[in-house]
Structures are given as C-alpha cells and as structure tokens.
Design brief:
The protein is of the alpha/beta class. It folds into two domains: 40 residues, no CATH class; 238 residues, Class I glutamine amidotransferase (GATase) domain (Rossmann fold). The longest helix is centred in the N-terminal third of the chain and has 42 residues. The structure holds manganese (II) ion. Manganese (II) ion binds next to loops.
C-alpha cells in the first residue's frame, strides 16, 4: 500500500513538473489556430489571383529567386512555382488553374529558335528550359492568361511570337551600347530608359523616364508582330515590349522585382498591373456558361 502510494506520488510529482510546459505549448498552438480561424472568416471573400512563376533548373531542382515571390505577394497575388518539366499534358493542367503568369530571368535563349546560328559570344543555354518556357507562353497566350515577362522572360515572349534577339549586345548592336551588365545590387538603377508615350507601360508607371537595373547581354532585335516597343535605353536598345492592340502581355528587360525588394513602389505597379489583369481574367473565366435565355446567333435552332 505504502509502495503504491509513493509510486502515485512520484507520478503526480512528474506530472506537475511537466504540466506547465505542456500547457504553455498547447496555449501557443491553440492561440495560433484560433487566430487562423478568426482570420478565415475575414479572408474568406479575399481571393488573391493565382500567379504561376516560371522556374530555373539548378542541380536537378526547380528554383526561383525569392524577390519574384515577394513582389507577387506584395502586389496582392498568390504565387505558385511551376516546376521545369516538358510534359505538355501536365503543364496544360497547371495552366488551367492559373490566373496570371510571370516569366522569369535566366540563361541565354538558343538562337536556333529564331533561325540563327550561335555566335562565339553566346553564353550557356538550357534546351529543356527553352522548351518549357515556350510551352508556358503558348499555353498561357492561347487562353489569354495575362503574362509579365522579365529579362529572359521578355526575350522569350518576343521569340515565341516570331521576333529575334541580339545574341550578344556589345558585339552585335549597331550603336555603341551603354553598360547593360551592372555590378551593383538589383535594388539600384544602372541606366536610363525612356518610356514611350501612349503605351500601357506609360499608363502603369506614370513616368517618361526611369533609372532601371540591368543584367543582360542579350536583347530584343526584331520586334515580334503584334507587339510594340514600350521603352528604350539611350543607346536605342529595346527595354520593354507590350502586345498591341490590347492584350495583357508585357515584357521588361530589367528586373522590377529587384527594385521592389528595395522598397520601390513605382516598380511595384508593374506587378499590380499583372494582378489587376489576372483578376479580370479570373472573373471572365468564372462567368456562367451562356444558358437558354442568352441571345442566339441562330434563332431558328
Ligand atoms: Mn538594360
């Protein structure tokens, strides 16, 4: 009897020792869950558009820079990374869920895609990523999903719609180009761009010129049909393109997400433009299919 009492005593003692720890842990978790539950009621009607972000391949994985993700979130979108795959059925399925697309920066584009042989100055190309990126652009534009192309993303949009690139600006551009590869961090502007009046970009930024960052040795050469130039650098290099008339496809040669990471609110407007267009796209996508009461082109049928 005495033995079992002391066993019970030890057990009680151990329980008392552990209880405060357990209790405080549960409290923290419960508070966290309660906060999420109370937020859910407020957030239920807030549905940020789903924005796919193209990835790059590094040591077998699909990765993207955090600045792209943060800029999409800051502009009011819900970002998802699209892994680098060449399976068209899988990419179609992923694209069917998206409301907007960001094509990110990266390697050189294989010039065979625009019927040119590679020059000596061509840098590393990734044939798998080229195919993946071109598939994304075609699948998205077929559905009229809004696209924002950044750096390589802008160049690939131009190639996808039938344009060409300078494989190497310093050796191929007819003018003496300004320095388009900066050593400063991406938050700092390196050279000036002049934004063309009466363009979508001009309406977005509300500026006629801006100092942007620059990390490219390739650039748009012949503009794709159905596009217009939205900005030039002072050496006449094309720095921004947009689909015209009135398609939600915008490409910029600089990295707006780099400026946004440094607190630049003007460059954030580029991402807000994408999110606004994605919101409109989703609203149209979710419209009910036309029913019996809709006007028919063939009233006798
Ligand atoms: Mn540049």
């Amino acid at each position: 009897m005495k033995n079992s009492l002391s066993t019970a005593g030890i057990f009680l003692f151990l329980l008392l020792l552990q209880a405060p720890g357990i209790r405080s842990q549960q409290t923290k978790l419960q508070t966290f869950h309660a906060r999420m539950d109370s937020c859910e009621a407020n957030l239920r009607n807030q549905r940020p558009p789903l924005i796919g972000i193209s990835a790059t391949q590094q040591s077998g994985g699909s990765t993207i820079g955090g600045a792209y993700v943060q800029a999409v979130v800051k502009a009011g979108g819900a970002p998802v990374i699209i892994p680098v795959i060449e399976d068209e059925a899988a990419l179609r399925q992923i694209l069917s869920t998206l409301d907007g697309l960001v094509m990110t920066g990266g390697e050189d584009v294989n010039p065979l895609w625009y019927n040119e042989e590679p020059v000596q100055q061509l840098q590393a190309v990734d044939p798998v990523r080229d195919t993946y990126d071109l598939m994304l652009i075609k699948l998205a534009s077929d559905r009229n999903i809004p696209i924002l192309g950044i750096c390589r993303g802008e160049q690939l949009i131009n190639v996808a719609f039938g344009g060409t690139l300078y494989q190497d600006l310093p050796s191929q551009h007819p003018n003496k180009p300004v320095k388009h590869v900066q050593q400063m961090p991406k938050t700092f502007g390196a050279h000036t761009i002049d934004i063309q009046p009466q363009t979508q970009l001009s309406a977005i930024l509300g500026q006629s010129s801006y100092a942007v960052n620059s990390f490219h040795h390739q650039a748009v050469k012949e503009l794709a049909p159905g596009f217009r130039v939205a900005a030039y650098s002072r050496d006449s290099v094309i720095e921004a393109i947009e689909a015209w008339p009135d398609r939600p496809i915008l490409g910029v040669q600089w990295h707006p997400e780099g400026h946004v990471a440094g607190g630049d609110t003007t460059m954030l407007r580029i991402f807000r433009f994408l999110i606004d267009k994605a919101d409109i796209y989703r609203s149209n996508k979710e419209l009910p299919p036309s029913g019996k009461n809709s006007l028919s082109l063939y009233p006798n049928f």
